[in-house]
Each structure stands twice: as C-alpha cells, then as structure tokens.
Design brief:
Strand content of chain B: 15-25%
Strand content of chain A: under 5%
Helix content of chain B: 40-55%
Number of strands of chain B: 30
Number of domains of chain B: 5
Oligomer: heterodimer
Order of helices and strands of chain A: HHHHHHH
Number of helices of chain B: 29
CATH topology of the largest domain in chain B: TIM Barrel
Helix content of chain A: over 70%
Structural class of chain A: mainly alpha
Largest sheet of chain A: none
Largest sheet of chain B: 8 strands, mixed, barrel
Radius of gyration of chain A: 14 Å
Number of helices of chain A: 7
CATH architecture of the largest domain in chain B: Alpha-Beta Barrel
Distance between the termini of chain B: 117 Å
CATH class of chain A: Mainly Alpha
Strand order of the largest sheet of chain B: 11-12-14-15-16-17-18-19
Largest interface: A-B, 22 and 17 residues
Shape of chain A: elongated
C-alpha cells in the first residue's frame, strides 16, 4: 500500500502527520481513507451549492475540512478552507467556483485511492 | 468492570471518531456518541465518565448546546470537557471557554497534545473524586468510612498497643448555628477539626463523622482528661465569640479487640450520651454502668406495656402538712413500679426513659385514672378528705388529648376539680411557653388548682413567673443544699417565699428532712411542708391511716403563724402605710432588730415619728444609725430587753423610756413593741412611741411612779393605784378616753368620798377589806376580784381588780399595787 502513500505525498498530503494520529496503524489509516472516498458530505455539498441554504453548506464544508485535516489531505483541506471562510463570512460570490476547485481535489484523491 | 477510566467522545464524523478512539482505547474505556443528544444520554446513564471530548459542529444538537447542558447540570458539571474544533480564531476560543469548556483542541489533532490534555484532566478529576470520598469536604478530616478503615489498620498494625476511642460533639450545636450563623458554625467546626488533627495525627486516627460529631482513636497512654477539658476554653477565646462552646466526650477504652470498629464507636457513643447535658463533667467513660443502664432500658422498654396490663404500677401518696393547722392538708400522688421479679424499679430510671420513648403519656393517663378512682373511693369511706395532686409530664403537654382527658376523669368519677391538683414542671415552660400558659388557663377555668413543681430548678427567668398564672409554687429544699451553712441560699429562699406571697401564690416546700429546716421555714412564713420529716411517700393503706388521723406526729408548734402579709403590704404600698399609720396615735415604725449586735434599725416610720424625735428623715435613715442612740443611755438596755421579750413571747411588750434629743431635752415616752416576723439574721418588730410627758408633768416623780406607769401600760388597765400602807397614801392613776392619765393622791386615813366617786361604795368596801386582809395576813399573794366600777362618767362597767402586795426587807407588806382592767 505504500504506493497510495507515495501518491498522496506527491500531491502534497501530510501522510506522516496523519499516520502519527493513527498511532502508526497503516491499515486503519488506509481504511479511513477509503471510507472517506464515500463520504456523503461531498455529494451533499454539490447538491446544496446551487441553493441558498448557506448554513447547511457551511456545516458540510466544515465537516469535510476537519476530516481532510485529520487525514492529512492538505490540498483538499486548503481548498475546503477557502469555501468554509467564504460561507462563514457570507460572501457567496465565488462559492461555486471554489466548490469546483475543492471538488477537483477530492476527485484527485478518490482516483488515487481507487487505483 | 475493569478499572480503566471512561471517556466520552462526541463527534459526528466517523473518521474523526475512529481516530480518537484509536488514540485512547488503550488507556481508557472509550464511549462514543455521534451527536449531542446521544452524548447526553450516555452521560446520564453512566456514572463514571472522567472526560468528554466534544466536537462543536454537529447535527441534531451542536456542541455548544451539549456543553451548556453539561455545565449547567449539577450532577455532571464537574466532568472535564475538551472541545475539538477546526476553528482556531480567538473568538471561537472565547466562546468555547465562556460556555464552560475546560480546554479545547484543534483539528487536525496533534496526537500528543490531545492525549496529554486528556490525561491531565482525567487524572485531576479522579483525584478530586477520590478525595471527596475519603475526606470530609468542610474540615479536611477523614470521613466515617475512611476513619473506620484507617482505624482498623491502625489497630491491626499495632497489636500490642492499647487504644481508646473518643467520640466528641458540641452541646446544642444547633443553637450555635442559630445564635450566630452557619458560617460561624462552620468556622467553629473547622477550628475543632484542626485542634483534633494537630493533637492526634501523629499518634492515631481522627474523623468528622457528621455535622458536629467527631471521632478519634488514640493510644490510651495519650489520653489526657485535663487537656480534653481545657480544649473548649481555648476555642471560645481564640474565636472571639461571646459564647462558651461546650464539648462533650464519650470515651471507650478498647478492652475487646474482637469488636468491629463500628461497635467500638457505638460504645463510645453510648458513653457520650451519658455525658451529654451534664455541665459539671463533660466526659464519661463507657463502663459496665453505662452498658448496664442501656440493657436495663431495653428491658424496661419490653416490659412497660405488660406492666400496665398487670397493674404493676402502684400509686404512693406523700402528705403535705400545714404548720399552722398541724395536720395533713393534701398529698402528692407518685408512681412506683413494682415488678414481680425485679422488685421496685426506681422512677429515676423509668421516668426519663418513658419521656424519651413517649410511653409516659400512656402511663400518666393510667395513673391519673387510678388516682381519681381512689379519690372517689375515699370520699365515701372517710370523713376527712384531702386533695391529691398529680404530676403532668412536659411530654404530656404535647398530647392534644391530655387536657380533655383530665376533664373527662372529673366527670367519670364525679369528683370536684379542686380535689385533683395538677403539678406542672418548669421545663414545660422553657420548651413551649405559650402552650403551657394556654393549658394552665384552661384548666384553671375548669376549676383546677395548678402547682409549679420544682420551682427554681430549671432555667426559666422571671418572665415565667410573670406569665404563668400558677396557684402554688413548689420549692424543693434539696436545691438549697445545707441551709445551716448556706446564708445565701437561705436568703434566696426567704425572698422567694416573700415574693410568692406578694404574687398571691401559695408555697409548698418539699424535701424537708430535718428539724432545723422546719424551724427556719416556719420563721420565714412557710406553712405547707412536704418531706421525710413528716412522711415519705406512703402506700395506699398507710396513707389511709393518715386520713383517719391527719394530725402531724412530730413536734409542731400550734401557735398561729403571724400573718406578715399586712406588714409586707405596708412596706410595698407607701400610701396605704401612711394612711394607716398616720392615724395612729404617736410615732409608729417598722424596725429591724439584730440580736447579734443588739441594734435597732429603722425600716419605715410615719410622720409623727419624725416629730417626736425631732429628726429629719435623712438622719433617721442613715445606714448604720442605731435607733437606740436616740434614747437616753440609761434606758437603752431596758428597750433592748423589751425587744427581746417580744421576740420570745410574740406578744406586745412595753417599756417606758426617755428620748434624748440633741439639745439635751428629754421626752418621757412609752414604747410598745410587737414582734412581726423573723428573717434569717434579724427580726422585724413594730414600735409605737407615745409621748407621755403630759402625764409626767403631774408632779409625778419618775423613779417613784415609774412602776405604776409600767403597770398601766403593760396591762392596758383603766386604773392603777399604789397604796403606801405605812403612810396611808393612795395614789391613783386613772386613764381617760383620750388616753391621758390623771393622778390623784388620797390620804386613806381621811376620806372615802373620792374613792366612792371612782368605785361604788359597795365595791370600795370589798377592795378595802381585801387590802386590810392582805396587810393583816402579811400575804404577798396576788389577789384578783371582779368588781363594777364607774369611771370617767360612764356607767358601771365590769372590771377585774388585781392587787399586788410588796414586802420590804423586813418582810412586811409595805405597798400594795393595784390595777383595774376593763374586761
């Protein structure tokens, strides 16, 4: 499974940090990563992004942000952060674009996991 | 259940949860919740969560709500909460801490940091819990459970050392909390705790069991009673409160190591109970006496109901005697327990027990019924009947049916209320004054006479006398101990008796055993006496013999007691005093005569008195002034003798003396004295002084005629005469209506007319004959004859003529004195 870690590192993920969080349990880490690929918050956010339910959007994004951070998925984390702040500050102009960016990073992550 | 501490993770994201569970599952028992609601559920159903990791952003109930729920619930508010969040701005920080979170952690977790934070909080929380379960939070001493454990260990570790358990508590601590406040009360407890800790911690165990109860276990060799006694004194002075904290101690020296610690503490507690309420010694040892009493009490408890059914309670009667009447006038009913196998059980033992366990009311109701039945029976059998008094316990006061029951007994047995006297105790007043007053008034209204038993033995104040409308005060002499050595006690008793009379209350003195007590009581005006000097409590049969013959069998003087009430009224009511006294002829006063130094001290006088003596009130009442100084020196002794005579005879005695004024003028006066009553160290006498100088002016020679005057005044006679046999001279002193005396001198050899004008001729002849007889026979016997005389232009009145012959040194009758008294 080292390849997953290598690939994740390639896109800038903090694999070591995450592993430390998992007390060095690589198997568990991989499990969680896989589990995250099916995280429903992303599709949920996708559905919401065109609505005006900003609070819901915020909650979703916020959750994703947390998990991404814990899993060491830095690039996903960063893009999510932007969205989260925008939603927090009620500046909704660029949310669709920023969601795109975030979604992109997520897809990259998923493809790494599925290979 | 393993002994890992439990922590709760509240996080909606599964992955985050997984991470945290992974982080902590080795060290702790990890509970999980997905949202706030679930979290609260788990908290409420689990006793021992030592830490909560709480995510803020969650569906259903967000972190803030959960946080606020936990921190506002007393049961859980001390569980530490670490909030986990991704927001790392200070605004969030403030909000989180404001809600009461103990700390917060950022996502992504830094494993080490989160881990350490949790560890610290869990450790601290658990230590606090352990402390709370081992120690008393207020004082820091061991609590009961840890004391028992620690003491057991102490005893086991030192098998050769002898230990003592001491229980201590503060007398009436509730009162302290009320007098001051709970903060002061707590401060006192802490102070005591510190003293105990300082003294005991190196040698033994100690604890605060509950409220104001402390326990200690120390080696017996360290037991120092003096130190124990002194402790309370230090307390008060150090704390600067104006109240003497009284500690009581129960001491059990461990003689049986097989007892459990709790059993040992129980024994110390029994000893403590024995010590409580005893202000003389504040400690008591558990010994066989204590245990015996306890066992006895338990036994009595078992037997009491049966005792009533089997009529084991008997009524004894102790008579009350009247000194003035010399006979029994009432009796007190007392209960005796005559157990078939145990014999007589002392009331001192069972009465307090029954008061404690409430059985007293059942017993009292039974006794009262028996007494009423007895009264009725005696009514039909005996001619002479006396009222019987029954005792109402202070516990009975709390029984709402008590008063009605007593009234119903009167009806049931058809007896007059005045035959059932009711004795109440002072302690009933101190406990519930209003209730007692209400009850007494009601009963008096129904016709009962109410007595205050054991007056003076309790803590009641003068207010009680003011408020309580009792009819009779019963004073127990024993509280005065030995009267003959105790001046102060005697004075107190005298004052109480006097005060009772002013308040129109009768007084019965009980506990009289010796004659000197009796004499003293009589002298201060006590009339009703109860005590072993007359009779101990008597069984029904022996008491019946008293009903047959109620006269006192002991030496009682049947002389009437002087009713000194009137004089007391005089002393109290100045107006009345002056009104009555100023109408008297002459100077009148109340004096104190001191037999030791033979001083006569004025207490109160009327106006005429001042004018006779020509002194002002100030001089008169100068503290040490001795009235005798106002009389001529030569007369002082005879006045003293006169005072002492009246004290002995209780009759009016008279003397003639010269009053000597400051300017040397002498006033010829007749002084009449009358014994009034005795106080403990002096006598009260009344003195009437009449200026009889006008009589004196009738050329009477004092020395020669003074005997005649004395005769006149002594015997209140109408005529006094002095026949000089040798010289044939008859001197007559005749009293007129205005109390003046006129003197007539007659030469008997010459005329009979003057005699006739006083005494009719027939009687005059009789007298003359008698006198001649006396002279002839040279007899010195006193002769009396009834004759009729007219004098002062009155009709003939019957009188008694007395003749007193006097012989001179040669043995011849040379003088005959005569006195004629109005009869």
């Amino acid at each position: 499974m080292n390849t997953v870690f290598v690939k994740l590192k390639e896109i800038g993920s903090d694999v070591d940090g995450a592993l430390a969080r998992f007390m060095g349990d690589e198997e568990l880490y991989i499990e969680c990563l896989e589990s995250f690929t099916e995280d429903e918050n992303i599709p949920k956010l996708e559905r919401l992004i065109r609505t005006t339910e900003y609070q819901e959007m915020f909650n979703c994004a916020h959750t994703i942000k947390g998990v991404a951070a814990n899993l060491g998925l830095t690039s996903l984390f960063n893009t999510t952060c932007i969205l989260v702040e925008e939603l927090r500050n009620s500046s909704y102009d660029n949310i669709e674009t920023d969601f795109e960016a975030m979604s992109n990073e997520f897809n990259i992550f998923v493809s790494i996991m599925h290979n | 259940m393993d002994n890992k501490s439990a922590i709760l993770i509240v996080e909606d994201s599964k992955i985050n949860r997984i991470i945290l569970v992974k982080m902590f599952s080795e060290k702790y028992n990890v509970l999980q919740a997905e949202n706030g609601e679930e979290a609260l559920n788990i908290i409420h159903n689990n006793k021992d969560i030592s830490c909560i990791l709480l995510d803020l952003i969650m569906p259903v109930m967000d972190g803030f709500e959960v946080l606020s729920n936990i921190k506002n619930d007393f049961a859980y508010s001390n569980i530490p909460v670490i909030v986990i969040t991704t927001d790392n701005d200070s605004e969030s920080e403030i909000k989180v801490l404001d809600y009461g979170a103990d700390d917060f952690c950022l996502k992504p977790f830094k494993a080490e940091i989160v881990s350490l934070k949790v560890k610290n909080l869990v450790d601290k929380f658990e230590l606090e819990k352990k402390y709370a379960s081992r120690f008393d939070s207020l004082t820091g001493l061991f609590n009961a459970d840890s004391f028992y454990a620690a003491t057991e260990k102490l005893l086991n570790d030192n098998p050769s050392v002898n230990y003592t358990i001491i229980m201590t508590n503060i007398e009436k601590f509730k009162l302290v909390n009320e007098l001051f406040d709970t903060a002061t009360g707590d401060a006192i407890l802490i102070k005591i705790a510190n003293i105990i800790k300082n003294k005991v911690s190196k040698v033994g165990t100690y604890a605060r069991l509950e409220s104001d109860h402390f326990a200690m276990c120390i080696p017996t060799s360290n037991l120092d009673i003096d130190v124990i006694q002194k402790q309370a004194g230090f307390l008060t002075s150090e704390m600067d409160i104006n109240y003497a904290i009284q500690l009581s101690y129960g001491i059990f020296i461990i003689d049986n190591k097989n007892l459990s610690i709790t059993q040992m503490c129980d024994r110390a507690k029994m000893a403590l109970n024995a010590a409580k309420g005893n202000y003389v010694t504040s400690y008591a040892f558990y010994d066989d006496e204590v245990r015996k009493n306890l066992l006895v009490e338990q036994e009595l408890n078992q037997y009491m109901n049966q005792a009533i059914e089997e009529d084991q309670f008997e009524i004894y009667f102790q008579p009350v005697y009247s000194l003035s009447k010399g006979k029994m006038i009432s009796a007190e009913a007392l209960v005796r327990w005559n157990h078939p196998t145990k014999g007589f059980i002392s009331p001192g033992l069972f009465i307090p027990l029954f008061e404690r366990n409430g059985f007293i009311t059942k017993l009292d109701f039974y006794v009262w019924d028996k007494v009423c039945r007895q009264i009725k029976e005696w009514e039909s059998r005996f001619e002479y009947n006396v009222p019987i008094s029954i005792n109402i316990s202070r516990i009975d006061m709390y029984n709402p049916g008590m008063v009605n029951y007593i009234v119903s007994l009167i009806d049931k047995y058809d007896i007059e209320p005045r035959f059932l006297k009711l004795e109440v105790t002072e302690s009933a007043y101190t406990e519930n004054p209003e209730k007692l007053i209400e009850i007494i008034k009601y009963l008096q209204n129904e016709g009962f006479i109410v007595l205050m038993d054991d007056f003076g033995s309790g803590y009641s104040s003068l207010n009680m006398l003011k408020d309580l409308p009792v009819d009779v005060l019963k004073i127990d002499l024993k509280f005065l101990f030995d009267l003959s050595n105790n001046n102060r006690a005697a004075n107190i008793l005298t004052s109480i008796v006097r005060m009772a009379k002013w308040l129109k209350m009768a007084v019965i003195v009980e506990g009289v055993e010796f004659e000197n007590q009796l004499e003293f009581l009589r002298s201060i005006g006590c009339d009703e006496i109860q005590g072993y000097y007359f009779d101990r409590p008597l069984s029904k049969n022996i008491f019946e013999s008293r009903l047959l013959d109620p006269y006192a069998k002991y030496s009682t003087d049947k002389r009437e007691l002087h009713d000194d009430l009137e004089f007391e009224d005089f002393l109290q009511d100045k107006e009345m005093f002056l009104r009555l006294i100023n109408n008297n002829v002459g100077g009148f006063g109340i004096f104190e005569y001191n037999p030791q130094n033979k001083h006569l001290k004025v207490v109160k006088v009327n106006d005429k008195y001042y004018s006779i003596f020509d002194v002002d009130p100030y001089t008169m009442f100068e503290t040490n002034s001795n009235t005798l100084n106002l009389f001529s020196k030569r007369d002082r002794n005879s006045i003293i003798e006169c005072c002492e005579r009246t004290i002995k005879t209780h009759n009016r005695e008279m003397v003639i003396a010269f009053i000597e004024k400051e300017n040397g003028e002498k006033i010829y006066s007749s002084i009449s004295v009358q014994y009034v009553y005795a106080t403990y160290n002096n006598y009260i006498i009344s003195v009437t002084i009449n200026d009889i100088s006008n009589v004196r002016n009738h050329d009477a020679d004092f020395d020669e005629d003074c005997d005649l005057f004395k005769t006149l005044f002594f015997n209140k006679c109408i005529v006094a005469f002095d026949l000089d046999v040798l010289n044939d001279v008859l001197k007559l002193f005749i009293r007129d209506a205005e109390m003046n005396y006129s003197k007539i001198t007659i030469d008997t050899s010459e005329s009979e007319e003057i005699g006739n004008s006083i005494i009719d001729s027939k009687n005059y002849e009789i007298i003359k004959k008698i006198i001649d007889c006396i002279i002839e026979e040279n007899s010195s016997d006193i002769v009396t004859k009834e004759i009729n005389i007219s004098y002062n232009n009155r009709e003939c009145v019957p009188t008694k003529c007395s003749l007193f012959p006097l012989k001179n040194d040669e043995g011849f009758v040379y003088k005959v004195y005569g006195a004629i008294d109005d009869i």
